[in-house]
Specification:
With about 80 residues, the protein is an alpha/beta fold. About 30% of the residues lie in helices and about 25% in strands. It contains two helices and three strands. The termini are far apart. The mean pLDDT is about 80.
Length: about 80
């Protein structure tokens, strides 16, 4: 059984920048590379990108019980 891993990059608002959210709408290339790499070693990655509904994300975490939940943040 392959373990689930959630890869998350939330999208902030241009008028309300946040230190933890990106304001660029370009696709998350780094997370896509990571997604491909963890899939090759036997994990089942799921990528969440853009404006994420927190309630839906929490339900997905509770339902799927992923091995890891990873966030891409701007530092």
């Amino acid at each position: 059984m392959r373990k689930n891993i959630f890869l998350i990059q939330s999208l902030g608002k241009l008028d309300q920048p946040s230190g933890f959210m990106r304001t660029c709408s370009l696709e998350p290339l780094a997370l896509e590379y990571l997604e491909s790499s963890v899939e090759e070693i036997g994990f089942n990655p799921e990528l969440f990108f853009g404006k994420i509904d927190i309630e839906d994300l929490l339900l997905q975490i509770e339902k799927q019980r992923p091995f890891a939940v990873c966030f891409s943040v701007y530092t």
